[in-house]
Amino acid sequence: MKATEDEIDERRLIEAAQRDPGRFAEIYEANFARVYAYVARRVPGREEAEDVTAEVFQRALAGLVGFEWQGTPFIGWLLGIAGNLIARRWKAAGGKEEVPVDELELAANAADATNAGDSMTDASARHRQRNRELPDASRAVATEAD
Predict the structure, then answer these.
(1) 139 found inside a domain
(2) What's the CA dihedral at 39, 45, 46, 51 to 10 degrees?
(3) pTM
(4) Residue 133 included in any domain
(5) 98 in a structural domain
(6) Taking a C-beta distance cutoff of 8 angstroms, is the pair 103, 56 a contact?
(7) Which residues contact 69 (CB under 8 A, 6 or more apart)?
(8) Residue 61: pLDDT over 90
(9) Which range marks the domain in which residue 69 is found?
(10) Secondary structure of the chain: what % helix, strand, coil (to 5)?
(11) Which residues in 9-30 are b (16+ Cβ under 10 Å) and which e?
């Protein structure tokens, strides 16, 4: 199988970075967007995605000396590191997955609440009316539950 120019360039860059860690910045620049995108789709928030992505590259730099080229794109190794880090974080959190809330979701919820404002007011009024119709003992229980 014939290696493409990109594969040859990538392999040379990795070999250069193994000899001179200062060249790792080029590897970082070439792969950051893909690693970040991979991580961001799998963790609950931007801050955690940034932390995990940073740790991926820290580990890659630390392990670069022992990296052996096997003919597959280097990004595969980086994504493997990312996957392992995400799995460890998930296990450390007790397997509890958080639901991400971002600005778009908050904006959408605010818009829904604004649009539903009239119906919420109507529902609240109906609830108060029903409470008034309850016998005294039941009304006391219902009021405590509110």
Answers:
(1) yes
(2) -60
(3) 0.62
(4) yes
(5) no
(6) no
(7) 11, 14, 15
(8) yes
(9) 5-92
(10) 80, 0, 20
(11) ebeebbeebeeeeebbeebbee
